[in-house]
Amino acid sequence: MYRQRTDIAIKQPFLKMSVITDKSGSFQLPQYHPMPKEWANINLVQASFVGFINHGLNKKELVFFKESDYIADADFYVSLLFNHLKESLLSIQPQNRPTTLYLQVDNSAAEGKNQYLLQFAALLVHHEWFEEVYIHYLQPGHTHEDIDRLFQLFHTHFQWKVIETMDEAITFAQSIYHKDVYIHELKWPILSWKKWFLAFCTSMSGHKDKYAFWLKKGLDGTPTLLFKQKSLDEQWIEVEESVFSHAPSGHPIAIQPSPIPRELITTVLNKTSKFLSEKVSFVQY
Fold this sequence. Notes:
By secondary structure, the protein is α+β, with helices and mostly antiparallel strands.
């Protein structure tokens, strides 16, 4: 079914948009090969990236970030998805923008299996970014070959390199993906979606054991939520309770990042300095 949805978006990008997103495994900075024995007990800087594949636009994106700077919760993932969709839609002429979004996300509660992603999807319908949004989750034990391959290329080569800073990690990623992937460090603010949704959304429950959701406008013009227990089930079941208790107003406020503590950076640099080049400094972390 996932492959069918991506094929439809590729063949009819003016009608359907298919996006898959996931978070890669972590990597540490500085990276040194072979790893010095002296580094075994050092808490190195942990970094990662979130990936997007937009099938109809043939667009791939990797957003790098330091894990200590942000809490990777629903606010984080919805903010990244919001900006990916916004930039994708702005790249399309208004008359050619698709009306349906197929969204494939990870089954973990932090990344996508939560009420906040469903409420965000309802918001996309309410503001007419899309007429309908389908959200699908993989059942445990399954993987997505396309985005897994995208991540694997970086980690396979990274482990053999000497890479000292985030800028170097991004430059390295750009060198192996060439121009096929848009690669950058996180540049957008993370927004407090969860707190904002509390003002006008009803609380949801019972969604954790379901693997397909559909958001569209109901007869009264407000977003309606439907679900299937499994993606392959035939019948959609409508949720009786409205997603919104009343019309959304205002906007979420920005959450300030929490930079790596100065003492941690100082400790890392002091303990690894004899292996690092002279150009590496405090400001690069």
